[in-house]
Design a protein that fits this description.
heterodimer, A: alpha/beta, globular, B: alpha+beta, five-stranded antiparallel β-sheet, 6 helices, 36% helix
Chain lengths: 168, 168
């Protein structure tokens, strides 16, 4: 059992090769975790297309890594084109929470698209949110802050804050 | 009906021997000319049983694992994997999908589920401190070879044969 890595942007691709069983799983796990940390990757693609044999140890690897990726708000994709391996993974229901792709290229493209969307969406979302926040909700926030600060403000605080709030 | 061939081996409870057990079983059952898919299923089930004996039976320690296999002319294969380890106090619970007594080792808890779905019949005999015996039965599908056999095919082969095995 061997694992090689590719890195594109913040995507780590782990290419597994050989027979994946309990014997090799521990080492693979450590290598993937180490690489995720070392490269600071957010997304993980587990490429099972080079795996000739796999038992349920392969499910354990997916489950453990899924938690890491989820904590980094990343996406995890399993690349699998061998029906026997797909069947074992399906048994655990892992495909309900993890994406499945046929090729490594498809998987990378999927995450690229997601990253692109994130980049485009974030500023637009902020613009949309800003005028909304200027209304009642934001004023309330200012008010509650000023009420908390009241003792320092000699009663003028609330009036001042209101002016600031509407000016923004 | 007498088996046309049988074998019994013993090996140390080392994780290296998971691959060894798989090779042995695929070399032995190859005599019955299984399909690639059937061979993969048998190998996977054996891999799970042997891994269980190593991880749970002997808890990573030293021990001897017994593997026995019998085959019949009609394509029936009987496999037994036995250890003299700690045993299972609640077999029902252990057989549940996703149940693992060692979740911290990232075991998926799918071992028995994989064995059950890849073989035709699975029996687990175990008691706390008494070791564990896993018996699996599989009938190779040979209808594609001889259509004439279909008419005289005994579809109820599982029940009587397994009883015979219990009292072996």
């Amino acid at each position: 059992m061997e694992v090689t890595f590719d890195l594109t942007e913040d995507i780590l691709v782990a290419n597994l090769e050989g027979e994946l069983d309990h014997h090799g799983a521990g080492q693979i796990r450590d290598e993937i975790d180490g690489s995720m940390k070392a490269f600071g990757a957010n997304h993980l693609i587990l490429n099972y297309s080079g795996v000739r044999f796999m038992d349920s140890s392969g499910i354990g690897i997916v489950m453990g890594r899924y938690n890491t990726v989820k904590a980094r708000k990343g996406i995890m994709i399993i690349v699998v084109n061998n029906p026997a391996i797909e069947r074992i993974l399906s048994l655990s229901g892992i495909f309900l929470i993890v994406e499945k792709k046929r090729t490594k290229e498809e998987a990378v493209a999927y995450i690229f698209e997601h990253n692109q969307k994130l980049r485009n969406d974030v500023p637009r979302a902020n613009q949309r949110r800003r005028p909304q926040e200027n209304t009642a909700e934001q004023l309330l926030k200012f008010k509650s802050e000023s009420i908390r600060r009241e003792p320092d403000m000699d009663g003028k605080g609330i009036k001042g804050v209101k002016v600031n709030g509407t000016n923004q | 009906m007498e088996p046309i061939n049988k074998m019994r081996i013993q090996f140390s409870s080392l994780s290296e021997n998971e691959a060894f057990a798989r090779s042995v079983i695929s070399a032995f059952t190859a005599q019955l000319d299984p399909t690639v898919e059937e061979l993969t299923e048998i190998k996977t089930a054996v891999s799970e049983a042997v891994s269980n004996a190593i991880i749970h039976g002997y808890e990573g320690g030293e021990g001897i694992i017994h593997m026995e296999c019998k085959m019949w002319e009609d394509g029936k294969i009987w496999i037994m994997v036995e250890d003299e380890g700690v045993g299972i106090s609640d077999v029902e619970q252990a057989r549940q999908p996703l149940y693992s007594s060692k979740p911290e080792e990232e075991r998926s808890g799918m071992g028995f589920t994989v064995m059950e779905s890849f073989m035709d019949k699975l029996e687990v005999v175990s008691e706390k401190g008494e070791g564990t015996k896993v018996v699996m039965l599989k009938k190779l599908d040979r209808t594609y070879e001889m259509e004439s056999i279909v008419s005289s095919f005994d579809w109820n082969f599982r029940e009587p044969k397994l009883e015979a095995n219990n009292g072996k």
